[in-house]
Amino acid sequence: VIKKSLLFCLFSLSAAPKDYDGLVVRSATKVTSDIINAASNLKIIGRAGTGVDNVDVDAATKKGIIVMNTPSGNTISAAELTCALIMSLSRHVPQAVMSMKAGNWDRKKFMGAELYGKVLGIVGLGRIGKEVASRMQSFGMRTIGYDPITPPEVATSWGVEPMSLEQLWPQCDYITVHTPLMPSTVGLLNDETFAKCKKGVKVVNCARGGIIDEAALLRALESGQCGGAGLDVFIEEPPKDRSLVNHPNVVSCPHLGASTKEAQARCGQDIAQQIVDMVNGKNLVGAVNAQVLASTFSQESHQMIALGKALGAVLQSCTSRNPCNNLRITTQGKKYWSNLMV
Predict the structure, then answer these.
(1) What's the CA gap between 147 and 129, in Å, rounded?
(2) How do the domains of the chain map onto residue ranges?
């Protein structure tokens, strides 16, 4: 139980939060193993946002510290920015704006293309991917997608055609990625995958820097294999290498996916409520290292877990081919007996 206080840190930790039981951070704050190991009282780390790659989850797990995020707080904001970048790439909006501000009037230079009838490949069909699909379908785009977790029938119900990555790459006019950054997704779009895509494919990344191999993307842009990129995230933020940012076919933003008033408020409210609910034993949402939770349950919770297992065994027996012939229930106290219905 968190008995003391909660530290809400927006930017950086100058020293280990030794006296705090809880820590809430945003994406810019790095919670390293050194900070975790020095924080003797820390019991929970809350990430007010989705990605937890700025938190050393392994170090927290080893110390029995719960790490949780707010999986839905910035969903709408990130989806809307993704759609904005797709539209910007199709009509060269940022480049045309800068040209106008420079005193030019060049209509031919910024000839665009309609989104209607084009194919959008969505890699990652979680909350954000789903919202992007519904919005771009309104523009008449055909949406196809890949996700190793989302059942095909669920994706189909959203109007997304599920398929493998090998099937997806060559069909797309636009590709947007919405996956967490993990070993299996680092460099997901690379020289090999770009070669499998349509010539001139446009890509968008509002998820995490590193999912698209930046060097491979630059080579694809230079060769024309990639016709444009909308980037809100980078491997290094801010990026010291400006090659991608300065490329004429790249529209870039300084990690604005969750930078709306609504998302900021929602993430803050969500993480605060999640922590309160967990401490009070009401609910558990957003825990990314559930394996540490057994040590945090109260004695009463352990009893309820045992009861749940027993009830599950009873239900399994009742629905099996050889069900039990009789059932004996032992209760204690008038409270439980009065609420028991057989």
Answers:
(1) 10
(2) 6-73+261-299, 75-252
pLDDT of residue 295: 60
Q: Which residue has the tokens 């490329």?
A: 247
The crossing angle, in degrees rounded to 10, of helices 75-91 and 261-279 is 150
pTM of the model: 0.78
Has 237 been annotated as catalytic? yes
Q: Is 247 a catalytic residue?
A: no
- Indicate if 302 belongs to the active site: no
* 10, pLDDT greater than 50: no
- Residue 112 CB neighbours (<10 A): 13
* CATH superfamily for domain 75-252: NAD(P)-binding Rossmann-like Domain (3.40.50.720)
Please state, for a pLDDT cut of 70, what percent of the chain lies above it. Answer: 86
Residue 292 has a pLDDT of 72
Task: For domain 6-73+261-299, say whether CATH 3.90.230.10 is its number.
Answer: no
Exactly one of 236, 237, 262, 302 is catalytic; which is it? 237
Active-site pick, 26, 92, 142, 255: 255
